[in-house]
Structure prediction request, 657 residues.
Amino acid sequence: MEQNNKQAVRTWPFFLLGLVFVLLSGLYGAIAALDAAAHFKDNLLFVLYELLFPASVITALFAALLWSRKSNRMYRAYAFSAMVLGVLYLAVMPGLSAPDELSHYSTAYRISSTMLFEDPLIRPAGLTAVRASDYPLEDMNGVKTPEVPDDTEEIPEVLGNPVKQTTYRAVKDWEKRYAFSTKPVASPIPDVKTTPVFYLPQAIGFSIARVLGLGAVGLLFLGKFLNLCCYVALTALAVRTTPIGKSWFAAAGLLPMSLHLAASLSYDAGLIGTVFLFTALVFKLAYGTEEIRARELIALCALAALFGPCKLVYAPVILLALLIPARVFGGFGKKLLCFLILLLSLVAAVLAVNANVLEAYFFPAAAEQAGNVSADMSHAGFTASELFSHPFFTLRMLLNSFSARLLNWGAEMIGMRLGNLDPLLGASGLQTLLFALGLVALTVADSTGEKNYVLVPGSKAAWQDDDEAEEVEAAGVATEADTATTGEVPTAATPAEPEGEANTEAALSALSEQETAGEVLTSATTEHIAEAVETLRETREEEASQEALADEEKFGPHYMEVREPGRFARFYALLIGCISFFGILFAMLLAWTSRDALWIEGVQGRYFLPLLPLFLFGLQSKALQSGLPFKRLVPYGFVILNLCVGIRIFALAVLRV
Prediction:
């Protein structure tokens, strides 16, 4: 108790400082909202801020309460924080503001139409069919309502791209301006050709909105909200599953870019969640359990089959499964068999979904003739054979990209540019630096020496052995009953019986024979026999209870100390992360970079988010140690910084024309 009190006294200033940060950001936001309301003669902007600021303060108070508690249930604090912050980003950045969200919107709409047994296309044009009342959301041609040609804008714009002061007014007055209509019209937005699983939450939200007769704003909100719920469920389950580095997953899931993608229609939300969960499950099998179960192997295969086809560059993450010790599988042969099953599930899913893409990468002429080249491939200036045959050119492009873009990638991964890489909306330079320092702090070792324990299930084989032992014991009891009935004397004690018990049983048997033969026994001798029988019974009951307790500790559910990863494991995880990292660069060099480019084009920092827990795991070192509970302080700090980022986005958006 004294240690916990010291810990609370030592950390409470950090939680108090977080509240001060929110209050200062709130003052800045209030000034911006008042200025915008006076300048644009629109009181709605300040009314919205009157809702945003108190909600931010309440969130900060609850976050301080949850993250200050020293508990193994970190996933609860994370789930609350991620959900509330996701709703915050959904509110301050409405519309179709996320990267490539127009294409994600079109894909989710097409899948929703299929769910509702409607024709997803306008034929013979082959374009995605949307309701006429939803068409103004994507406004690519300046015609806000196809039914009313006069309702036009001088500059065509998509709702929320970019976010500005008119966006909030448009969302509020949307239903008044555009009449509800279910008439299908053609959408010119191309959809995304990838696994449809990561679009199911958005499509279900769209379907519910269409069945309930909600308008375009309600349709967008439900699609984004269910996508956010899916993201929070997957990442919170990852935080709960992993026995090591819970704060790595929590911090990576609470970055502004992660939450912004989660509160959008992007499939990146499901992609990040599945990669996180796969990594956490591998960590559990490698360091927090004694035997793999069938459902855990099935989960690994299902997760790999989900994220592999979506973005093939993350496929090397399955190599992390080789860190699981062979004894967890029951031997090296079974480990190799399970890994082959995992690999086959990934390959089968990739071939089923990405056969055309692979053909376009490696056989561009044949793919173009067959019409399998996607819209992204039209930007490509290189082929795989050219890059492999000119290694020095490829190396030069990599070095140029590192020198020119590496810091930008890191800032984009954190969230310095949210939206469609909007240079105005996102974390400030100072906030980005604080996020980066928080990630670095998670690589500092805990000097308190506190050990972690996890509850592991019992072994199936061990339970079978337990049942066999119970059958043997029951047979022994039956034998003793027969002996008491027939008067037969066991010839020898079993090897497992102690010598004292064997002698006592022999003496009791001899006295029983004398009594049966009619010999007269004294009263004292009879009492002595009764006492000996009672003592023998109590001894056997005590031994049986001790054996049952030992079996439960050995085979039943019990706590085990989390195994500490070694240097090789950390280096191996870092190597896998680097393979995927360079795979992303190579893919963008192959599929997006033009021939006259000076560095690799099209790379965005958000592509590295699924790999962040791997890098944090690989960079762990005991060279730097601290007694501060960074595993709780850093995620809490990220919650506070996200609240400040949300207020900053709103303050800048309301002043933007």
